[in-house]
Structure formats: C-alpha cells, structure tokens
Amino acid sequence: MKTSLLSLIFLLSVKSVFAASYTVPVEAELKNYANFELDSFKTTEYGGSITVKYKIPKLLTGVEQEVEFSGPVDEKANANILVGSNGVLTCSKEVEEKMECKVEYKNLQIDQANAIKLINKISLNANEINGRIAVMKSFSSDPVGFIHY
After folding, report:
1. Which residue pairs from 62-65 have beta carbons closer than 8 angstroms and sit at least 24 positions apart in sequence?
2. Beta strands 66-72 and 49-55: pairing type?
3. Is residue 116 pLDDT above 80, yes or no?
4. pLDDT digits (tens, 9 = 90+) for 37-47
5. DSSP codes of every residue in 70-111
6. Does 6 score more than 50 pLDDT?
7. How many CA atoms are closer than 13 Å to the CA of 46, on its beta-carbon side?
8. pTM (two decimals)
9. In this structure, are residues 20 and 148 in contact, taking their beta carbons and an 8 Å threshold?
C-alpha cells in the first residue's frame, strides 16, 4: 500500500530540470554581454499549479541567490502569471515546446562591487569587461529580463 501511495504522489508532482537562459534587455551594442545560462533552473507542476526556481546569475547581482515563483497553470490562457517574494514571472509559449517568461524582480540583493570583481575574474578583454559591467549596472537599476526554456 505504501508503495502505491508513493508512486501516486510521484506521478502527481512532476519536477523538470531544463536548460534555460536569461537575457537582460539592453542596447544593441551590449547584447553580446547580456545573455546568461541559468544554474539549477527547475519547474515543479502539482495539482494545477507550477513553481519555477533558479539561481540568478552572480555576474548580475554579485551575490548568490535563488528565486522562486508559483501560480496556477491555465493551458488555455495566453500567459501564466507566477509570483514570489522576489517579483513576478509572466510566461507564455514562444513556439511549440518553448517558453518565454518576462521577469520583473523586486527585493533582490545586489552587490555591484562584488559583481565587478567577478566580471574582472572571467575576462582579460577590456571590451567584454566594460560591456558586462554596463549590463550589470543596467540590471541593477531596472531588474527585468527574459527567460527562455
């Protein structure tokens, strides 16, 4: 009986790990530095709701932090709105089997000085360093972006 119950609970809760990317909306000259892979991007669907959880790129905030958004899933809706303590995630199907989510953050921890140190560690190219710092500062002043998965 326990095995059957555990199997049923597992089937009702579907966890998925996806390859996902995050893009900061910036001017054309900074686009090469505005895309980031998301670590630990996970979705969990259970009982008509979905939870999305991931780590924000440290190059944008200077600190490690994980965010989580949850909300109901409506397959017929054009978009599903998920909320969390760090903002709002509005997701829609871009094309079949591809999702795009607009993220509007709030209450993020941002350490620009540490972000600049991290950026300087990953590149020796002055153009890349300056571009990544400009993207980070843009994100710090207006923390929005797009997730594709």
Report:
1. 62/110, 62/111, 62/112, 62/113, 62/114, 62/115, 62/116, 62/117, 62/118, 62/136, 63/109, 63/110, 63/111, 63/114, 65/108, 65/109
2. antiparallel
3. yes
4. 998 899 999 99
5. EEE--TTSS-EEEEETTEEEEEEEEETTEEEEEEEE-S----
6. no
7. 10
8. 0.84
9. yes
